[in-house]
Structure formats: C-alpha cells, structure tokens
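Sample intake sheet
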Amino acid sequence: MEPGRKKRISILFVCAANRGRSVVAEKLLRSEFNTGFPELVERVEIASAGIMPQAYLKWAAGNGLFFRIPYYGKLPGPAVIRFLARRGFDVSSYRSRALDDELLDQADLIVAMDHSVQAEILTTRPQAADRVAAFRPFLLGDRSASSDIGDPFRLPHMDQVTGEWDMDDEYEVSYCEEIERILHDHVGVFARFIKGLLQ
C-alpha cells in the first residue's frame, strides 16, 4: 500500500437524538453498498450518532416541551423499527448514542440530516468543518431552505408520565421513505467519494 493511502473510509450520519433519521440512513446505505458496490463493503464503515441542537431545545422550551436528560441510550421510534424490520434490519436492540469527539475524529464524512444539526456540529466542533455535509445537498446539490430530511423543528409527543417522546408514525415513515428513495437513486455519490479517498 502506498504511504498515506487510506485502508478504510468512515461515514457518520447525525440527526437529533439518533433515534430515527440517522439510524435509517446508516442501515440503508449499508444495504445499498451490499447490492450495488460490493467491492467497497469491506472498505467503508458506516455509523450514526445524535446531537441535540441548542436552537431546537430553545425553540421546544418556548413551546412548552422540555426534554429530560439523558437524550440517549433509547430505542429508535416504533415506526422506524417497523420500517427497517420490513427491509431486513432488526434494530430492536439498538440504543441511541451521542456524537462525541472520538466518533467525530474517526469520521471522514459527517452527514447531518438537517440544517440545524449541521449548524450545531459546525458551532460546537469547528475542527470538523471540512468534513461536514448535509444529506440532501451532498447527494442532490439541493441547497434550498427546504432541503432538510424531516422537519428539524417539528415537536414530538412526550408522555407526561415516563418522559419518553416520539414522533407520530406517519411523519416518521415519510422521512424514512424519502431517505430510502434518495439513497437508492444517488448512492453513487457516496461511492465516488469513497473511491476518491481510497485512491
């Protein structure tokens, strides 16, 4: 191997709380590579994590919703579990995790699922600025204000007894399907990025 040539590439998806969008993207991108780019499967690591944007927490508090800490160590949303199960992924034992410096340092590409998550990463971890991209702009070149996957400021339901919160099924399925469609149609963008780093 030539000096400096990378052996493996790491892609990290990040959303708020790592219970939905980033988990779906992680699992479905792996599936797309297995199908379309098997030669890259052993050369790429795909993971996900969560970060809670301060802008979102402030907005939620202004609307009467206060999240109980910790945000992490929780199951994906029920609709997400069912959606992925129908595609052969069992995430019933998955537990959400926070974006930390170790994950950040290991990632060659950090893909934020919406602009508020991207902004939080850039604000709190500016050293990663050259490795952070938003999902739709990276894959589609769509830099419009509506280019988020999911609504970053859509309030979830919170159970007042347990403190658990979740999105409604229809909303979760809508962004799961959008992620699936975009990845299926544009997985080659990831493949070209990875091949470029491996050369």
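Comment: The first strand starts at residue 9 and ends at 15. The chain has seven helices and six strands.
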